[in-house]
Specification:
462 residues, alpha+beta, five-stranded antiparallel sheet
Amino acid sequence: MNMKGINQTVKLGLEILTPTQAGSGEELLKDFDYIDRAGEVFIVDQAQSFNVVASGNLALDSLMVSGFKLNDLVKAAGQDFGYRIPWLSNKQKIPDKLREQVKDAFNRPYLPGSALKGAIRTALIAEWLRATPTAVYTHLLPKKKGSKNWAAQELMQTLTGKDAKQDIFRPFKTTDVLFNSSDLCLADIRWLNENRWRSMVQKKSFDDWKVADGICAEVLKPGSITLATLQWDGFLLSDSCWQQKGTIANILPKDFAGLKELLNKHAKYRLGKEIEFYQTQGKQQPKDECQRILTQLEKDPDAAYLQLSWGSGWRGMTGDWASEDQIKSFRELFGLGKLGRPFPKTRRLVVNGEPKLPLGWIRLLPYETVADRLEQQQVRQEVTANQSQWVTQKISQIAQQNRSSEKDALRGKALAEAWSTLPDGSEKTAALADIKKRWQAENWWDEPNGKSAKQAKAIYDQ
């Protein structure tokens, strides 16, 4: 039971089940925002690269006057500042542009708390409407043509409140969900449109998905896991005087157990509809993926399943609560799609061998079930944070140039020579300490093996 003034905070694990993207609203462009690094997209941290060039021997103004390209800036900086994005499936041609995942100031991707709360809100409202006789709310549905963007406004305002201060979801809070840069990958996304594949450039549909171009996007890859926090405000729950009269407060469960039950009920309904859609479209692989998630859900009583963010489609945005008769009425009223054809008819699918992965499916897990994984992940993050960024990037750069392993680059003479050219100061000291620690982990420091390693050790010892 919630006590007045006492907040209920639930710490959970959040796992990405299928590629998930919360976009920044920006497109990144090849040679303006990223470059090709051995067949992988490398997003350049241009501000840090500029700072290194400006503080070094090379005059920044001469570089700018020469009309340099992004590759020139990276070469002038002498090391790679930024991050690489591997492909989710087989390595492909570097795209000319891609959709950007929203990130913080340290290039760490995250899911906004508003996206998580919005998806939860949509699912809960849909479950309440499906469980409620249509006669209760039919007078709130649109009866005449108007803006389709505001068609549900009267219904939503009556059920949940007209403004944020009176909204029944005000007691429920979510935080931004932060991931690591290593959780990002590049996805090739194709549009399934009435059993054919839609080209977003040519504005045509094709039988072969390989002919129909799609888009590329940064996404959080399946299997990524992080910490999420949900909170119920006990003070607001204890006194309803702030609520708008007539709203349906019981749409919002008062704890995670109640929330999980409704989210999973909605997820089963959504997955069932998607399985039915792909069956009628004759697309076995995406159907199997939806069935896989549904089977996992049915065997997983402790987790809550949810689809969110970009790619969840019209049904995901509206909550998928309307009956077939209601959808028919809405389509006629607002001119949605072509009558006599499936609606909604389009799905976005991520290529993994073939286009088959739906976007945006996650699950919320009890913290205890993922505590060890999250703690190990935190340890790895701390180790990475304590490493010299210069050393990490220089090793990668040397390995690419020499087509060698990063371990060979670490113990080689090239790294030692690059280190020796650093100006005396904290960066050079930190780099040597990191190199020494990495060598000691391999048992190289006291007894370097090989000519290049011995030459490198002699440089470090000077």
